[in-house]
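Reopening this one. Same input as before:
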Amino acid sequence: MIIFVQVFLAALLLIDGGRCNLNGLDPLSDQMIDKINSLDTTWKAGRNFHPSQLEYVKNLLSVKQAERDEKPIARSARIAVPLLETFDARTKWPECESIISLIRDQSNCAAGWAFAAASTMSDRYCIQTRGSPKLNFSAQELIACSGLGGCDAAPDKYGAWDYLLDNGVVTGDMYEGGGCMPFSIEPGHFGEKPAPTPGCNPVCQPGYPKSYLEDKQHGYSYMGILPYVKTIQIEMSKGGPVQAYFDVFADFLSYKSGVYKVESKDRIGYHSAKLIGWGTEDGVPYWLAANSWGTSWGDGGFFKIRRGFNESGIEANAVSGSF
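Same output, byte for byte:
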């Protein structure tokens, strides 16, 4: 019996040895990247940020999502069609491909919650209107005018959707883009201090043909999605991409390709992204997600994350809405 226990404990150490060896490494160091790539894991690491940018990167993330006492009742959508082995919202709704494919850049504003929400809203509006018109909802308005935390903190996962229903959201592209209220912070501020939350100026940019109130689009409903793979898949195949929140561990910063699964035990923050599809790569099931750290991060701004294991909590914190 003693020999069996010793062998069992030794096996556990071997299984978890890779993770233990990542502990204490600088998340942006070459050592971290090299160590990840030496593991027999499902993804590859690479250089996304300069080694000196760790404090900046940490400031892109919230400490933890806020909670509310009463939450909307999570329910399961029901459709009588079989689920596909591989799904990509861009190919199911080609009329909305340009909207769904857009990778936003939150610069040095810690508001991934707003970018993921605005992007998901844009996709679902496009899908419900069959691609006419194509509108990019404004992350700037959610950050500056909603009172939900701006560049400083994350609201609860329903906050942006509450604002959409109660106040409506105007259009707005990325920096110096079109729409009523484009993002006001220029990209490329890596290494600088976190950006302060922009002030709310409830007017459309000069030359835009509508007033702020005329440009508002209001949502009809939103819901938390039950934390099951099939439930999330049904909701995505029925209505389009969904927003999801997840914990960020130190190794995620260096993701480049493959199917991400956590190899580090060092949690450094909380974030939100948009799930747009699913599939299987080399036998590993994944969710396909769009991040908001620009196209130079990850796989052109996208990442795959292991599906069916609630990796980083991503399957327990999904939300969607309709117009």
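So the earlier flakiness isn't reproducible anymore. For the record, Residues 2-22 form the longest helix (21 residues).
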